[in-house]
Amino acid sequence: KAGVTQTPRYLIKTRGQQVTLSCSPISGHRSVSWYQQTPGQGLQFLFEYFSETQRNKGNFPGRFSGRQFSNSRSEMNVSTLELGDSALYLCASSWGGLQGNSPLHFGNGTRLTVT
Amino acid sequence: QKEVEQNSGPLSVPEGAIASLNCTYSDRVSQSFFWYRQYSGKSPELIMSIYSNGDKEDGRFTAQLNKASQYVSLLIRDSQPSDSATYLCAVNVRDSNYQLIWGAGTKLIIKP
């Protein structure tokens, strides 16, 4: 069974630009959640999509948004990039999502650098 | 105030000994508790999940949950050098919605 696939692996962007990250979950998983990992703040939950609907949300500003397609693939968009957005962005898929208390399966992450 | 607290370490344990990792969480509606292991430069991978008070064993790993005291721990028996990694505690809480709150992680070093 293929794992969670994130693309691209690395991105370099300039302040003020926007960026879109992609995540393909494990086949059969309907939940995709996104996380930001930085040395200072650790892992932080961004949001979760389940069957094309945003079901849960963390405490990030509206510049961070996402969507999920009918095949469960998900995209995350960050607009008006700031230097502080430089981080490793991880997506994870699960069968039942947070409401189902399901364990997460992580992708390899996208390393975003904002200059 | 951080909601999930872990000792950042590093925690140094001799090979073959028991490694004990602890995690405390704040008083919210906590649904489930997870331990993930993250090797340097890699993504987190699930070690254990626990949902009710008591112990849960899986091979060399035992998770312990005490909701009254608001802590969850992970014991690793017969520690191996390959266990050297950062261990992340994650708590699924329900407030206005569900959120997965992560501890900062404990770096574990197993010395041969």
Structure description:
The complex is a heterodimer of chains A (115) and B (112). With 115 residues, chain A is an all-beta fold. Helices cover 0% and strands 52% of the residues of chain A. Chain A has no helices and eleven strands. In chain A, the strands form two sheets. In chain A, strands 2, 4, 5, 6, 9, 10 and 11 form a seven-stranded mixed sheet that branches. In chain A, strands 1-3-8-7 form a four-stranded antiparallel sheet, with no helix packed on it. In chain A, strand 5 (42-50) and strand 6 (53-57) form a beta hairpin. Helices cover 0% and strands 61% of the residues of chain B. In chain B, 38% of the residues are buried. The model of chain B has no long low-confidence stretch (mean pLDDT 93). Chain B is globular and about 45 Å long. Chain B is built from no helices and eleven strands. With 112 residues, chain B is mainly β.
Strand content of chain A: over 45%
Average residue pLDDT of chain B: 93
- Given as residue ranges, the uncertain stretches of chain B (5+ residues, pLDDT < 50) are none
Main β-sheet of chain B: number of strands, strand sense, barrel status? 6 strands, mixed
**Radius of gyration of chain B, rounded?**
14 Å
Largest sheet of chain A: 7 strands, mixed
- Percent range of helical residues of chain A: under 10%
Number of helices of chain A: 0
Q: What helical percentage do the residues of chain B reach?
A: under 10%
How many E strands of chain A?
A: 11
Oligomer: heterodimer
How many angstroms separate the termini of chain B?
Answer: 37 Å
Structural class assignment of chain A: mainly beta
Shape call of chain A: globular
Biggest interface found: A-B, 22 and 23 residues
Distance between the termini of chain A: 37 Å
Radius of gyration of chain A: 13 Å
DSSP helical segment count of chain B: 0
Question: What is the string of SSEs of chain B from the N terminus onward?
Answer: EEEEEEEEEEE
Per DSSP, what share of the residues of chain B sits in E-state strands of 2 or more residues? over 45%
